[in-house]
Amino acid sequence: MKLVSKKWVAALGVVSVVAFSTQIAQAAEVALKAFAIKAKLVAGTNEVKLDKDPVTINGSLYVPVKAIGDALGQKVTWDNSSKTLTIKEYPFVANKYTWTTAPDLGSGLKEGGFSGLVHVPGDPDNVFYSLADRGPNGQITIDKSVNRTFPVQDYVPRFYKIQLDGDQIKVLETNKILLPVGAAGVVSKNRNTTGLSNVSTDEKSYDNTGKTLLPLDPDGLDLEGITYSPSDDTFWMSDEYRPSLIQIKRDGTLIGRYVPTGDKEKLKGAQTPIFDTLPAIYSKRIANRGFEGVTISPDGKFLYASIQSPMAVPDKATGEASRNLRILKMDLATKQIVGEYVYAAEDAKTFVNVAQKDVVISDLQALSTDVLLVDERDKNEGSAAQIKRVYKIDLSHATNILNQDLSSNLEGTSLDQLKEKKIITAAKSLVLDLTKLDYPFEKFEGLTVVNKNTIAITNDNDFGVGEYDANGVLKINDKQTQVWVIEVKDLW
């Protein structure tokens, strides 16, 4: 079942076979003479390696199907039990997994909100880590003010070790994010962190009614991305609030929080060790649009973090109209920032019903020291979605703008002006377009790589939080938390 007729090969129109010599063999199964052909298979200008020689039977040329699939960028599989040969064009969805057993959080809500995903090298291919953000939250209008509500006030930010089994997401471990041993949070009064806002200039936190203001917590976290450091067996996470980067132990204990220069003073009373070593300008992130993606290079030397949206530089209106997103590079040996690069988001004007402010980066995945995958998406879902894409970029060819004058006015600089200044943005090549795979969710927020042909993604279902009705009662929806495993063609 590894052979294909020359008629099918000819119909493909992209593959040629050149024969050099023949050798007679006996095809005992059908009592026909088969002639093995010393040949080469050429796709375009590239020769395809053959694990077996082509043969002729009754005047027809047969070529191994796997070689044809490789030549066309398609995957060939053989199911011996059903005697079925399947040829699939990359990329394709290999499996989908759903979290159907999420524990209750109270108020009709369940755990969920997967905001990031990482596969740790050495773990089985079906085992991953994910995390949830600040907890269930909604928006209610009170006296013409749109207030952010926290229906589960005692929620503790957490991360999960999960296993994909059958069609299910199974949680192997749940680890809450904890303050250092001996510390007690100003709000929790124990080691638990909260998802509450840090300072008065953040988006304000209210109770479920939207009327009672909740206390500020200098240790509060709104976590969005997760990655693993092989050099010291720790996890790093990205936070939207400050924005900040946090390092934790495997049991969830906080090691340190890295914030923009000048923000340490704002976090008085924090029990987490604070290091204000990030560029000060990052404190000008638009509210609820801080760090989203985070990844560490496979050699463990560098961490990359991406801002979700262009920042309010010099003001919010400029940021919301800009296409210029920032990616930071940290040297993990020194914990110092050593690079800043420009990533140009897609132009919203070339799509239907897409606002530029809603074209965002939601995750990163490092393939090598400077080559990353970028999760870029819009705010639409289902058939209305325009941008749910994975791009590959190589930052070794991009301009490092760290500490340059341009960094202080990046959002107000057009792409044409960047070219005039000889600033090279991160070149993008498309790896995956989820809109072509009928992806149903808005928040494609987690991205990781298992091997050179396998990507895993996950969505943030916002804990099933819906809208408030006219009586101020929070509605719960049935949005699922899912992980999709997708086969792609040779990431490296």
TrEMBL record:
Residues 112-463 form the Phytase-like domain. Residues 46-88 form the Copper amine oxidase-like N-terminal domain. It comes from the Bacteria. Signal peptide: none annotated. PANTHER family: BLR7070 PROTEIN, PHYTASE-LIKE DOMAIN-CONTAINING PROTEIN. This is Uncharacterized protein. It comes from Paenibacillus baekrokdamisoli.
